[in-house]
Design a protein that fits this description.
The chain is of the alpha/beta class and about 1000 residues long. It contains 45 helices and 26 strands. Bound molecules: flavin-adenine dinucleotide and iron/sulfur cluster (2 copies).
Length: about 1000
């Protein structure tokens, strides 16, 4: 074993090296990048924007790393470790980067395991263990275990993006830790490299040999020497994640770390936050998947009573109690304001409770669990709250309520303005008997400091989440310190753990000494010394950490400045300030943003990493196929933030780095809907493109795409000639070379006889204004010129349903059709888009003001009236039109619900074939997919199935471009095309023009607009 350097000498040496690197020594960085590129297979990312994207995590901190390394394999990690050791460059290991305390923020080389180092290496079903690489995401692991009836039960809220390596790094804890414990209770072994490059297996101490044994013995000696102190100061709560787990040799946790009393040295690494080793693989203890669950929702008249009752509730269940989660009054109210969640929450609350506790029992059979619910009801009656429990035994009802609990937090996080809910005392854990007094006292502390917090989460284990609202650009840091001081005094008073879930990082490192005292802290230093004498791995984190309120390490320090920018779109709604005590925001446009709200909209991204998820929902297709931080909503928001604040150089938003980050954004609006704070990257991209093109001009391809609505009527006259491109590979190749349209794609087919040059029996503007059942049909460029049968079908359908239909047209006839401006928006030509939108306002305003529905076919066009038109400064008429603008199925489903479609229903013939439905991304973003399903169910015998898909990958013109063809196809292959291929007999319904094209190109199948299918089934 290496003789360790005296601690102080080693620290000074390492700190010196670290400071050099932190100052970004070009020389060291250059050599590091060159060697990584030469000696490994991994991705070497040293550009300022790459470093900037890895300078933050879900904390308030920011520190530029020297560079980023994305290893392709475990071997690459080892090589990088050796190179860093040679060059004395510290290493910051990283998984999903969702830490809340700045654990992955550091000045060295960031190693991102999450892209490639994520294999399941082995599953032992009978022994219930799995061996995994650290970059694997929890949900992905659990999906692969489901078939075995097993799961890994540390169910963190970030399960869709947190990696097992990061979870082990932080000793993460799930909502159900009361039953299954924390990471430390569920890790059986870790293979990891120490800083000297040696790979070790950490497992049972009694079976350890060599260096691991020696190290274990030294740690045991430390634990024995400090036994009285450990017994005296170590928090006796399940949730304590601060410092190193020196108590492996003297367990202080109410739940033993191992079932058989053995000591496992892997547990020393759990919670060490990348400061002791770099993980190569983890051996995990799996659990049987619960077969049944029931939920009791206990309604409390006061928050205090809820907190006071938790200690009694946790004694129920005879081992089947798996969660007791708090939802407070604010969250209940926020959820009630959301029409999607209101019915669920209403069915779970009785009257107006101040708080509810969600009490879950899980096990193998529902009947037994139901009896535990009975006991919960009895207990509450004994505690003076008869009839306070709502019983949810049905699985779907339970699932809906858990969704509401998550959404409440999301709404809270979407507070606009510089004051944000800040996580720094969010997870203090106190013994349950003191929970009521602790939460009460801390609420007073918030009040004293002019803030307030919403309480939620893990009442079962005394870890309630709460984030006071602080403005870190102003007095936030000082207030944070003051609140932390007072909170810590309360934690001490109630013998709790200051760091109970989210780890130490930059935020709580300095509280380690406060928690454990100087002797145990010194022992932690000695442990670090044993593993990493030269402080190569995350230096200055657990040991010798900076102050939590050091503003030089913050993402929004008081010196943070935004470069003035005149945006093209209206972002005023984000340009506000808020009152931390009331959460009231000032009037739009008064927030003092030099970018008039654009910067503040970008800054809404709090880096929580939710956009890294792969589950249901659209966000974020470009990340799903690349797994690159650059091509992720978070990466884009960070790039924009850095650019807007001058951190990527004087070019600001027109920096090429921004263009690169935006390139693969398909403007699907997935983030607008799925991002908890509503980061709307599609709109941000329009703004970016406006500035980019203003500086760099537009290519011929861009101009051809954007001006399509203006030349379509002329071009259609040459349809046979233009369509030759699709028959001639040579012409396609020439087109690719000259214009950039992929030769591997067909282009939409022009029609000589299209909707706009054919006669239709429709109503005039005057006629529709006086009709009994009026409707305006908004026919877009794509359905009008390329697939006019769709527009005809919609017209036929509306007329068959008894509506007097007027086809939307310009008020001043110029031979062109009325257009929403979508193609101009897609290329950032906001002025031209606004001119189009103005024509829409003039033409449709008077009709909308009379309450006449404006019905469209193409989601990306019609929904522009509900979305972007509202940010073009067009006034209230645009809002009125938005209120009347509906997709055909939305309109008809509404009419159906009102009992107005009986005539149409009678005319529809049955469908024999299965029907698969693919929702356009914008339909999904506006919750407009379920009306399609509802409407198709009008067809006798139809059982339409929704394809769980993200973006089809075509995304307007995106997929036609040669440079995007490959990514476009990869997006389609994620789920859409395989689903279509698996159902060869199905009718495929897709309302998006580009979705239909993608299905045609990728699966060789003809998808149809729902209007076509319905019209086809109309009896003659
Ligand atoms: C909205 C939100 C909700 C959250 N909810 C929970 C929750 O319910 N429970 C909970 O416990 N936490 C929660 N967290 C915190 C965080 O998500 C978890 O700690 C998560 O497990 C971190 O995983 P990660 O992959 O993002 O790790 P990262 O943040 O990337 O890394 C975490 C730590 O592990 C180290 N590390 C990563 N990989 C390695 C490796 N290969 N070798 C050595 N060290 C490594 C890092 O250096 C770092 O110190 C939440 C965070 C957010 C933003
Ligand atoms: S873009 Fe949204 S989902 Fe992604 S990290 Fe930022 S806030 Fe979270
Ligand atoms: S618009 Fe779509 S592709 Fe672009 S960042 Fe949002 S989710 Fe990702």
């Amino acid at each position: 074993m290496n003789a360790p350097l005296p601690l102080t000498v080693a620290r000074e040496a390492a700190a010196g090296a670290y400071d050099k690197v932190a100052a970004v020594s070009n020389e060291v960085a250059g050599r590091l990048a060159a060697r990584l590129a030469r000696e490994t297979q991994g991705e070497v990312l040293f550009a300022p924007a790459d470093r900037g994207r890895y300078a933050t995590d879900a904390s308030i901190y920011q520190e530029m790393p020297v560079g980023v390394f994305v290893p392709r394999s475990a071997e690459d990690v080892q090589l990088a470790l050796d190179i860093c050791r040679d060059l004395k460059v510290p290493i910051v290991a990283r998984g999903g980067g969702t830490s809340q305390c700045g654990q992955t923020v550091g000045a060295g080389l960031v190693i991102d395991y999450s892209k490639h180092v994520r294999k399941v290496l082995d599953v032992d079903v009978s022994g219930r263990t799995a061996v995994v690489e650290p970059g694997i995401v929890l949900d992905h692991l659990n999906a692969s275990l489901k078939k075995h009836g097993l799961w890994y039960p540390v169910d963190v809220s970030t399960s869709a993006q947190a990696t097992l390596g990061g979870m082990a790094g932080n000793n993460s804890c799930g909502s159900r830790s009361v039953a299954w414990g924390n990471m430390v209770h569920n890790v059986r072994g870790i293979d990891a490299w120490t800083a000297d490059g040696r790979l070790h297996s950490f497992g049972r101490f009694d079976q350890a040999t060599g260096w691991v044994r020696e190290m274990g013995e030294q740690v045991r000696t430390l634990a024995e020497t400090l036994a009285p102190e450990i017994d005296a100061v170590w928090p006796k709560v399940l949730r304590r994640v601060a410092g190193y787990n020196l108590d492996v040799f003297r367990n202080q946790n109410p739940k033993p770390y191992t079932n058989d009393g053995s000591v496992n040295l892997a547990h020393l690494l759990v919670g060490s936050e990348g400061t002791l080793t770099l993980t190569r693989s983890l051996t995990l203890q799996l659990s049987p998947l619960p077969q049944a669950k029931v939920l009791g929702v206990v309604n409390f008249p006061t928050f205090y009573k809820a907190m006071d009752s938790a200690q009694h509730i946790v004694k129920l269940g005879e081992g089947t109690l798996t969660a007791v989660e708090l939802v407070d009054r604010t969250m209940i109210e926020l959820s009630l304001q959301n029409p999607a969640f209101a019915p669920t929450i209403r069915s779970a609350v009785i009257g107006q409770p101040d708080a509810v506790l969600l009490v879950e029992f899980s096990g193998s059979d529902k009947a037994t669990l139901v009896r535990h619910l009975d006991l919960l009801v009895e207990l509450m009656a004994d505690l003076g709250l008869p009839k306070s429990v709502v019983r949810l035994e049905d699985d779907a009802a339970q699932k809906n309520l858990w969704e509401v609990r998550k959404a409440g937090l999301n709404i809270m996080m979407s507070l606009k303005g510089d004051g944000k809910p800040v996580s720094f005392i969010e997870d203090c854990a106190v013994p349950l008997e003191h929970l009521a007094e602790y939460t009460d006292a801390l609420t007073q502390v918030f009040r004293k400091h002019g803030s307030r917090g919403t309480w939620y989460a893990h009442a079962s284990v005394g870890t309630l989440h709460v984030r006071p609202i602080l403005d870190m650009r102003r007095e936030g840091a000082a207030k944070m310190r003051a609140i932390a001081d007072e909170a810590s005094a309360l934690v001490r008073k109630y013998k709790g753990a200051y760091s109970g879930e989210h780890g130490d990082g930059l935020c709580r490192g300095e509280w380690i000494q406060w928690q454990f005292g100087p002797n145990i802290t010194r022992a932690f230093g000695q442990i670090k010394q044993l593993f990493d004498p030269n402080q190569l791995l995350c230096p200055r984190r657990m040991i010798d950490p900076p102050r939590m309120d050091d503003t030089r390490l913050m993402r929004f320090p008081p010196s943070y400045k935004v470069i003035p920018l005149q945006p093209a779109l209206d972002w005023k709604v984000w340009d506000v300030q808020n009152n931390p005590a009331t959460e009231q925001t000032t009037a739009p446009g008064t927030g003092g943003d030099p970018a008039h709200g654009y910067a503040k909209a970008v800054e809404m991204c709090n880096n929580n990493g939710h956009c890294r998820k792969f589950d249901a929902g659209t966000m974020c297709p470009s990340y799903r196929v690349t797994r690159d931080e650059q091509h992720l909503t978070r990466g884009r928001a960070n790039t924009l933030r850095l650019a807007l604040s001058g951190q990527l150089g004087p070019e600001g938003i027109t920096s090429p780095a921004v263009r690169e980050a935006m390139d693969l954004c398909v403007s699907c609006k997935g983030c607008k809907r799925d991002c908890p704070t509503g980061v709307d990257m599609a709109r941000m991209k329009v703004e970016f493109l406006h500035h980019w093109h203003a500086k760099h001009g537009r290519s011929l391809k861009d101009r051809l795409i954007s001006a399509l609505p203006d030349y379509a009527h002329r071009a259609a006259r040459f349809a046979p000639l233009l369509n030759m491109r699709n028959r001639s590979p040579l012409l396609a190749k020439v087109g690719e070379k000259l214009l950039g349209f992929s030769a591997r794609r067909s282009l939409p087919e022009w029609q000589s006889q299209h909707f706009f040059n054919q006669p239709h029996s429709t109503a005039t503007r005057e006629e529709v204004l006086v009709a009994a059942k009026p409707a305006v049909l908004f026919v877009d460029t794509f359905n009008g010129f390329f697939e006019s049968a769709n527009a005809q079908a919609a017209l036929k359908l509306l007329q068959a349903a008894g509506y007097t239909v007027h086809v939307a047209a310009k008020t001043r006839e110029d031979g062109k059709h009325l257009c929403c401006g979508r193609t101009y928006l897609a290329s950032g030509d906001v002025a031209a888009a606004k001119a189009k939108a103005q024509e829409v306002v003039e033409a449709l305003g008077p009709l909308a003001e009379r309450g006449i529905p404006i019905v469209g076919l193409e989601p990306s066009c019609l929904l522009t009236l509900r979305d972007e038109h509202l940010s073009l400064g067009l006034g209230n008429v645009a809002k009125t039109i938005a209120g009347q603008a509906l997709l055909l199925e939305e309109f008809l489903a509404r009419e159906l619900a009102a009992g107005k479609l009986e005539t149409l229903r009678d005319k529809l013939r049955p469908v024999e074939q299965p029907i698969l439905v693919h929702g356009h991304c914008h339909q999904k973003a506006f919750d407009a997919v379920s009306p399609v399903l509802k409407l198709l169910q009008l067809l006798p015998g139809a059982k339409p199935q929704l394809i769980e898909s993200s973006c089809c990958g075509m995304a307007g013109a995106f997929g036609y471009e040669a440079s995007h063809h490959e990514v476009s196809m990869q997006m389609a292959e994620l789920s859409l095309l395989p689903a279509v291929r698996q159902a060869p007999d199905a009718i495929v319904v897709a309302d998006g023009t580009s979705c239909r094209h993608q299905i045609h190109d990728g699966a060789g199948r003809e998808a149809v607009h729902a209007a076509v299918l319905l019209a086809r089934q109309l009896a003659a």
